[in-house]
Amino acid sequence: MSTREGVDAEATPTMVGTLCEGGGHPVAKTLAAPFVLTYRATRAYVQPCVGAYAGSLARAVSERLCCCFAGMWRYEDKKWCGNAAIGDDPEHRDCDWVRVEELSAGSDEKPMVLYQGTIEPRDCVQGALGNCWLVSALACLAEHPGAVKRIILQNEKTIRGKYQVRFYDGKEKRFVIVTVDDLIPCKKGTKKPIYMQPHENEFWPLIVEKAMAKFMGSYSALDGGHGTWATHALTGDHVFMLKKRQGATSRYWRRHNMKFIGKPGDGRKKDAVFHKEVEEDIVRDKLFNILEQYNKIDSLIAVARVGKNGESKDENNGLVEGHLFSVISVRWAGRSFGVGGRRMVKIRNPWSSYEWKGPWGDGTKEWDKHPSIAKELGYENKNDGIFWMEFDDFVEYFNQISVCDRTTKNDLMLHYDQDFPCTGPIKGCLGGCFCFWVGCRGPRTIYCGHESTEELREARACGCVKVGNT
């Protein structure tokens, strides 16, 4: 693949690299396990912890010695900037480009940071761009912090304002690294971003969105897209779609596999795809089992109701037609000895508003009638875009479901609150190492983690116990 400025191909892993990622021959894996586990724990937690403190020291020294030369050492992408980066969006071509630390969401008390607190779906707030397909995919991925940190190669805010983001080019069948600066398009005369919005004082979604815009050619190229392609680009894993059969009741669904249009280097858009139908009916009960199965193995699931009117709000039920929602949880709650209960689906709107108003929506009478289910599901009545639906209503309303069968073997990453630069890294390192060794998270993730596949299959059983979320 010929790579353009700021978009580079990723190297192919070696045999040793394969062993370190938990692959290889079973005998070789067994012999290498003690060394691999020690290496992975060091790479995931100790090395980034030391790097965080070294980076803080380097920043402090650089800010004092080089402040008068700031314009010289701050990175700025001269080839992909201005109107070329905005693209076909006349309304926002005359905008201001503002460094992330100057955005209005930050303050002297709480300056902008790459990650604030725990990485979570509500970090992804859609702006003035029709890219809910990307926002929803990021929100799904944010349920798994290690997966997000595999995309952005920097662990914290950089001195130069230079970031590298890793995407999978499905047509070229390889990972690429996209390099961007931290200049964000803002409304003229303000420091408020036009597109992706910061959640409190963190900006990682803004960097991913900018890198995706560069990957696709411009911000305007992100207006409208496929959720399946987004999760494929973010993970490199297998994706497929489940669609309600046309002219049929909600009882029958079919799988559609994503295929790329054209050949590598033919000049078509990177997201030029179609979905090929598999001629095998999936009944409603089996559909629930499939979704429950993929949710259990930490796959990414998004849903939509696709109609003829594009994106339109339904004030009666609170949902948005033509809009992509992410599925957070699929549960069979309230069962007693394997019978009864309610089949429930937890959903998130990337707008952080517009929620389901029907049965089991926030504040409805069903929660009062079934307090045990409310407790089991951890129900909270909040206007945050997160809501529950009973499965029968779910399949009645939605007609498309996107699934990314995500590889989970590489989710080990250091997580800490960057609002606390002095104590955050060491706390994150100690907590991560505890879960890695004592909680069996290391062996479970590296050797028992799920490997993406094109086939519908159940998660493998593993003797390790899942402990922690670090």
From TrEMBL:
Gene Ontology MF, one: calcium-dependent cysteine-type endopeptidase activity
Any GO BP annotation: proteolysis
User: Hydrolase among the record's keywords?
Assistant: yes
List, for all copies, the residue spans of the domain called Calpain catalytic. Answer: 97-407
| InterPro entries with a match to the protein in the record | Calpain_cysteine_protease, Papain-like_cys_pep_sf, Pept_cys_AS, Peptidase_C2_calpain_cat
Cellular component per GO, a single term? cytoplasm
The active-site annotation reads 132, 323, 349
Q: Known SUPFAM superfamilies for this protein?
A: Cysteine proteinases
Which keywords does the record carry?
A: Hydrolase, Protease, Thiol protease
Q: Which Gene3D superfamilies match?
A: Cysteine proteinases
What family is this protein classified in? Belongs to the peptidase C2 family.
Name of the protein in its database record:
Peptidase C2, calpain family
The root-end lineage is: Eukaryota, Viridiplantae, Chlorophyta, Mamiellophyceae, Mamiellales
